[in-house]
Amino acid sequence: MKVSRLWPALAAAVLSCVVLAPSANAESLDRPANVERFMDAYRAWGRNAQDVDAYMNLFVQDGTARLWDSGLETPRDWAGIRSQIEGVLKLAPDYIFVPQTVTSGADGRVVFIEALNTGTVKGKPVSFKTMHRLVLGDPAAGKDPSRVQDGRRFWDQVGMFRPVEDPANPLRNLFEGITSSATDPAPAIPLPPRVRQLAWNREAAGILVAGVDGAATLLGPGLTEPISGRRAMTEYLDRLFGALRDVALEPRATVSADGTEYREWVGTAVALGGADPRRISFSLVERTVKTATGTAWSLHFDTLDLIASAQTVKELRARIFG
Question: Per DSSP, what are the bridge partners of residue 136?
Fold first, then answer.
């Protein structure tokens, strides 16, 4: 473990924290009406994703919407959003988008959505998950609350580029071979937000794993099914941190509802892919779901720059987008 020496300091910080007030994003059994209206439109577009106008209608219509994506240092504006979806449909004319999980805050402003994306790229079928953090319009500012004002997408681009990878030098799975280890009955150690941020930025895998119960499972990029056991989960995070350095994440949106919590982290890191260190935009989303058997913990982030050099990424993009 890279930073096990941090444990005493972090544990002390946990114990020194006061009890936090309840979040403004209180749990609710029913999603707000504006979120339901948005999801009806989102699902309808996903069934007919070739309708670019229907896609653009998902965003506030005054031209101020913006959309961030994996690897982008600046967001796409209105014209960029249209150009991006047109590029996706050119790449995969049979593209289908299916929202699978939806969690919003009680005020209906922030929504986290996990979706399945399928299509055919260069004659080969692709299927990958994306996580979306969407801020819907603020009616107090004259914005439509059932349309997107600001969006950020978290996904592992490796799946999209596999159809054009070099067979002699395939894109590796950073987490290949990790399997479950023994579980234990130990409860989670509460990690207040500032301690959790410190753990991410100090690459403290053991601290983050201690923040979930010993019966928890973890699902993330490179895994076809959840893994269990603290040893296995620590190995997974150690692999991630072994491909990064100088992680600098800041907390953004947090939403809790019905036993599910999402935490968004946005920032930068130095990626070590291809022995070609360079600072990149690096962000992730954590999702935790309380279940009868233990916490289901999932992570959503991009591994492309963590396994490939800048030149390889450039060549892959050229093979797909020309």
Answer: 148
pLDDT tens-place string over residues 53-108: 999 999 999 999 999 998 788 999 999 999 999 999 999 999 999 999 999 999 99
**pTM of the prediction?**
0.90
In terms of Cβ atoms closer than 10 Å to its own Cβ (0-12, 13-18, 19+), residue 271 is buried
Q: 257 with 263: CB under 8 angstroms?
A: no
Long-range contacts of 230-233 (CB under 8 A, 24+ apart): 230/181, 230/183, 230/184, 231/181, 231/182, 232/178, 232/179, 232/180, 232/181, 233/209, 233/297
Produce one character per residue of 229-251: b if its CB has 16 or more CB atoms within 10 Å, e if not. Answer: bbbbbbbbbbbbbebbeebebee
- DSSP bridge partners of 112: 103, 133
pLDDT given at position 30: 82
- DSSP code for 238: H
Cα–Cα distance between 265 and 253 in angstroms, integer? Answer: 8
Of 70, 112, 9, the closest CA to residue 269 belongs to 70
